Each structure stands twice: as structure tokens, then as C-alpha cells.
């Protein structure tokens, strides 16, 4: 009887998650602009458009994707953050990415890192985004290694990562470094780096089960969840974090009426519906 009760509980949670996911997808669909973008182009529109498309693609949701990609085709972000994100997305969707790749490679500094703009001081954030994009574009490990090494040598002694070298540890860069490094576990030193970064992340889980530098947020919790899943570690912490996310969905299907939060929350829920 106990086993049946547990199975029923799991089934109820699964059905709730599926419903939650569908409602969130519908809300995002309703937020697409007539030009194919999401959000406000003068604010976070590029980032929001990229993240919604990443979520739709991960969930095999086709509605609005072509229109969104067509919009991005004509957007020419000049900073490294946006270049890396656009490159990763265009690789996934079989769009022409040759010039994006050449642009990103040209922005690499002598120390192997990437800055916010070409020839700017290298940061951990821009470098890890670029490493992810280069990996997605099937660039050789020999080409990527100097950038990967830049990340490894700038892990803080507490196990976390800052946004730039010698910055104090923060949730987002630590989670994203963990997530991207999961694709390089065959490289010497990466596994030990991941173990330490995961330990740091787990030490920062808040009493409400979420994550965030200044109190739990949806986007930080979602990115930490994705990072922990990518390395297949901390099952209990992941379970609690996913419950934190699902419990904070608004009646209209969104999270905080935020396109960015909703896209990331749905990506975590989608992966949670498809266990390793």
C-alpha cells in the first residue's frame, strides 16, 4: 500500500508539472511581438528572445520559432555576451553561423579569455558564454582550451566563481560555469573544479529551497537546477529547487509576468519531466 501511495503522489506531481509547463508555454506564445521578438528591444529584448527560443527548442515547441529566428537573423549584437548567445542558438537551429563564429574568435584575448567588447579585459562571464558557444559550434578542444583554462585558473578558493577574476563568488557565474564545464569532463582538472563548484552552490541553497545572491529568484534557481542536473549531482537539492520553481507560477502561467523568468523556469521543468 505504501508503494502505491508513493506512486500516486509521483503521478500527481508529474501531471501537475505537465499542466504547469503547458500553461507557461501558452503564456510565452502570447507574449511574442509582431516582428517575432519577445520583450522590449531597448531593454532585455535580445536576451529574452534568445532564451524563449532556447526553451521552445528544448521542448520541441515549434510555434513562433521560425519567426523568432528570422528576427534575430537581422540583429547584429556587438558585445561578446550577445554574440556568444546568438552563435549557440544558430548552431542548434542549423542557421548560417560562419560569420558569428569568426566574429567571436576574433574577440578572444591573449590570456584566452573574452571581454564584454573586443579588446576589453577578460571576464569569467563572457568567457564561459564563449566557451559554451565554441563547443556548440564544434570548435576543436585545442582552440577552446586556452579559454577553458582561463576559467579553471580563476575559480575562487571557496569553490565559486565571480563575474570577473578576483571577484567574490556569485550564484549565476558559478552555476553557469558548472553547467558548461559538464561538457568537458574528460579534460584534466575539470572534474575537481566541478566538485568544488557544486559544493559551493549547495552551501548557498536558501531555507525556501531556492537560490539567489540576495534572496531566492526564479532565474537563479532555474540556472542552478540546470547546472546540477548537467553534472547529475545533488538529487535532493534539485528536487527542492524544482518544487520552489513550480510553486511560484502565477495563475496566468507566467513567473512574475517576466519573459526571462518564465523561459528559464520552463526549461528546468521540461528537463525535470525527462529524467536522466
Account of the 3D structure:
With 276 residues, the chain is mainly alpha-helical. It has one domain (2-272): Alpha/alpha barrel (Glycosyltransferase), CATH 1.50.10. The protein has twelve helices and no strands. The longest helix is centred in the first third of the chain and has 29 residues, at 2-30.
Features:
276 residues, mainly alpha, Glycosyltransferase, 12 helices, globular
Structural class comes to: mainly alpha
How many separate structural domains?
Answer: 1
Written as H for each helix and E for each strand, in order along the chain, the element string is HHHHHHHHHHHH
**CATH-derived topology:** Glycosyltransferase
Write the layout of secondary structure elements.
Blueprint: H1 2-30, H2 45-58, H3 65-73, H4 80-92, H5 98-106, H6 124-136, H7 141-153, H8 171-181, H9 190-203, H10 218-230, H11 235-246, H12 259-272
Helix pairs in contact: 1-12, 2-3, 2-4, 2-12, 4-5, 4-6, 6-7, 6-8, 8-9, 8-10, 10-11, 10-12
Amino acid at each position: 500500500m505504501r508503494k502505491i501511495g508513493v506512486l500516486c503522489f509521483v503521478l500527481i506531481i508529474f501531471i501537475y508539472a505537465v499542466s504547469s509547463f503547458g500553461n507557461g508555454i501558452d503564456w510565452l506564445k502570447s507574449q511574442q511581438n509582431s516582428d517575432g521578438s519577445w520583450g522590449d528591444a531597448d531593454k532585455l529584448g535580445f536576451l529574452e528572445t534568445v532564451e524563449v527560443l532556447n526553451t521552445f527548442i528544448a521542448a520541441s515547441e515549434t510555434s513562433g520559432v521560425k519567426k523568432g529566428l528570422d528576427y534575430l537573423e537581422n540583429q547584429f549584437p556587438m558585445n561578446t555576451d550577445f554574440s556568444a548567445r546568438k552563435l549557440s542558438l544558430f548552431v542548434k537551429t542549423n542557421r548560417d553561423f560562419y560569420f558569428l563564429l569568426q566574429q567571436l574568435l576574433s574577440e578572444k584575448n591573449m590570456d584566452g579569455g573574452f571581454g564584454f567588447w573586443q579588446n576589453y579585459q577578460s571576464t569569467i562571464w563572457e568567457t564561459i558564454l564563449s566557451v559554451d558557444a565554441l563547443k556548440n559550434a564544434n570548435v576543436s578542444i585545442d582552440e577552446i582550451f586556452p579559454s577553458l583554462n582561463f576559467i579553471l585558473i580563476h575559480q575562487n578558493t571557496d569553490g565559486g566563481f565571480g563575474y570577473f577574476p578576483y571577484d567574490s563568488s556569485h550564484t549565476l557565474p558559478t552555476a553557469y560555469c558548472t553547467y558548461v564545464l559538464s561538457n568537458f569532463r574528460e579534460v584534466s582538472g575539470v572534474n575537481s573544479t566541478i566538485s568544488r563548484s557544486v559544493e559551493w552552490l549547495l552551501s548557498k541553497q536558501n531555507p525556501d529551497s531556492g537560490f539567489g545572491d540576495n534572496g531566492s529568484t526564479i532565474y537563479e534557481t532555474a540556472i542552478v537546477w540546470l547546472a546540477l542536473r548537467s553534472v547529475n549531482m545533488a538529487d535532493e537539492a534539485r528536487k527542492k529547487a524544482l518544487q520552489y520553481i513550480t510553486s511560484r507560477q502565477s495563475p496566468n502561467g507566467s513567473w512574475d509576468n517576466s519573459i526571462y523568468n518564465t523561459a528559464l523556469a520552463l526549461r528546468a521543468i521540461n528537463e525535470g519531466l525527462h529524467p536522466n
